[in-house]
Amino acid sequence: MDDFPGVLRRAQHGDEDAFTVLYRAMQPVLLRYLTVLAGRSNAEDLAAETWVGALRGLVKFRGNESDLRGWLVTIARARWVDMVRASTRRPEELTDEPPEQRAPDDVASAVVDRAASDEALALIARLPEEQAEIVTLRVVAQLDVGEVAEITGKTANHVRVLCHRGLRRLAEMIPGPDVMPALVTTMDET
Question: Hey, how many other C-beta atoms are within 10 angstroms of the C-beta on 62?
């Protein structure tokens, strides 16, 4: 993002346009992360709750763009944990009505992007829960090992191992040429 410090400063002082820039840059990452953790039906609600929490604390936030992404994912994870706890107290009701969704401005590219994202997220969601979360944080949210370790309460080495195992499983799920070396090389560089 161009001029992140300036955009952040303006957003912290109530500039709606600056907040919109931050939202548009960070919302896709949050949705992909939350979709893996909580499923598509809960991801939008959890993301909205995340932004409400972020608005309350944005004035005090200090850091760069990566720090903001990590901070938002931390808030999102806390909202997800709250949702899981609440669901054990009151079971979910199923309905025959599909949720209403707004159509994006560019429907054609949104459909193509969503299909690719849906396939990737569906594959990640098939991983064991710990691996799915770590791969999502490392690959989708693009957080470094230290940030992921802090968010999940795991050691950096445990994060690396879980990510490597998750990527290896994903490579086995993907038909075609062996993609594992490229995935591991990419993750080792970060």
Answer: 9
| Angle at CA of residue 81, ends 165 and 74, nearest 5° | 70
- CA–CA gap between residue 154 and residue 129 (Å, rounded): 14
pLDDT at 100: 57
Residue 74's nearest CA partner among 19, 149, 11 is: 149
Supply the DSSP symbol for 98.
P
- Contact at 8 Å (CB) between 53 and 123? no
CA atoms lying within 13 Å on the CB side of residue 13 = 6
- List Cα–Cα distances, 102 to 25, 45, 94, in angstroms: 19, 14, 21
Write the DSSP assignment of 123-143 as a string of letters.
HHHTS-HHHHHHHIIIIIS--
CA distance 31 to 117: 11
**DSSP label of 91:** P
Q: What is the pTM of this model?
A: 0.61
Residue at 16: amino acid letter: E
Domains of the chain as residue ranges with CATH: 1-89 (1.10.1740.10), 115-190 (1.10.10.10)
How would residue 179 be classed by pLDDT, with cut points 50, 70 and 90? very low
